[in-house]
Amino acid sequence: MDMNSTLVSSRSVANFSLWDKMLEKRSILKVQLEITARCNNDCRHCYLCLPSADKMALENEPTLGEIMHVADEAVKKGALWCTITGGEPLLRKDFRDIYLGLKRKGLLVSVFTNACLLREEHIKLFRKYPPLDIEVTVYGITKETYERVTRCPGSYDAFRRGLDLLLENGIPVRLKAMALRSNVHELPKIAEFCRARTKDYFRFDPSLHLRLDRDPVRNEIIKSERLSPEEIVALERADFERFNALEKGCDKLIRPNMCNKQCNHLFHCGTGAGSFVLGHDGRFRLCLSLHQPDCVYDLRRGSLADAWENFLPRVRDMRSDRKEFMERCRRCSIVNLCIWCPAHAYLETGEMDSHVDYFCQVAYARARSIMNENRMEANSLDPLPAGVFLPQQKR
Ligand code: SF4
Ligand code: SF4
User: Fold this and answer.
1) Reduced to 3 states, what is the DSSP secondary structure of residue 160?
2) 18-227, CATH topology level
3) Which residues contact 53 (CB under 8 A, 6 or more apart)?
4) What is the dihedral sign for C-alpha 246, 339, 186, 87?
């Protein structure tokens, strides 16, 4: 044997062919369990939360039995890991049973929590039966900023106590932040705080989705928390790792020739590819944001097998011949820099095939910034849709 030959090579998980094979077989890889819409906080930007004692939300929540049944079916179809999310999952009185039930099925379990309700009993549980990770969002690192976002007095002290408990006990934690009007002044300090406490790459998200219930009053509050396109680009440029990734992927992110006028499918993203959501109301969704009534399936009247094998392919096959869609988002050269997708378009406009002015502005600002850096000709970009202006442009 040639001793110099390489016996072992490494490959990133995303390039591991088993994943492709499982996707080809239409296996389920991951389940997102949105076990409640209720939350102890009332964050200004939240797309879902309802009060802790909301009666209707409580009545609609998937029961322990329903969650276990769906998890069982998903595991039979290949599921390897799951995320427990909300609302705030720790509000569920049966959180321990849900968590242990999923672990017993052999699933790798991640938990998304605001950490405010964490107690010693949860720590004991996580130490004995470790999660894959616990993901915590940091809304601010001062009481004033944190509680301006959460609108819940006392939440900052509770969050710090919960986070310290996790870290002191060696539970794997991932931290992230939302970039909001209410905390943007503190964002560099939030990043410092997070990086000092975890080894994981810290990420912040400036993309605020509107409410799943389409509540107009709450939606106005969310919009008031959105940063301007310039602020988003400036934040992304200041984040070395993030901007580097954007720049390196530049040729994939900006594709002037991507126009494919033949194809009128709505969905070109990965929604429903290897994963699904069991929603806070017991319904099956392809992803967390896709809430359009024709795209959700009532698992209480059907089965996961029917949802996965029959309903999901029908949703993925949905099309639109609308002129606006075919001329804009469907052939957009910078769609990969945009948070546009049929789900977000629906939340913003009530239609899955409309463009969204704010999304356009952010995507174009990103594209220009990357193109400047790469000395690419800005005029190779498609013009902005009629009536949409970058903030610095005169009307
Ligand atoms: S902590 Fe999370 S789920 Fe609760 S209100 Fe805030 S964003 Fe929503
Ligand atoms: S919203 Fe605007 S930038 Fe985004 S995909 Fe549609 S046309 Fe392109």
Assistant:
1) helix
2) TIM Barrel (3.20.20)
3) 38
4) negative
Cα of 392 from ligand 2 centre, angstroms: 18
The rounded Å distance from CA 340 to ligand 2 centre is 6
Q: Running DSSP on this structure, what letter comes out for residue 319?
A: B
d(CA 374, CA 362) in angstroms, rounded, equals 19
Look at the block and give the residue holding tokens 């819409």. Answer: 37
**Residue 89 CB less than 6 A away from ligand 1:** no
What is the model's pTM?
0.87
| pLDDT per residue as tens digits for the range 64-85 | 999 999 999 999 999 999 999 9
Q: Which ligand is nearest to the CA of 354?
A: 2
Residues paired with residue 137 on neighbouring β-strands, in sequence order: 176
SS3 label, residue 174? strand
| Residue whose CA is at the smallest distance from ligand 2 atom 6 | 329
Residue showing tokens 């013009």: 383
pLDDT in tens, 136-168: 999 999 999 999 999 999 999 999 999 999 999
Query: Is there an atom of ligand 1 within 6 Å of 85 CB?
Result: no
Q: Which tokens in the block code for residue 334? A: 């910078």
Q: Among 36, 42, 44, 49, which is best to mutate for testing ligand 1, by the most ligand atoms less than 8 A from CB?
A: 49
3-state secondary structure (DSSP) of residue 262: coil
Ligand 1 atom, smallest distance to 150 CA: 6
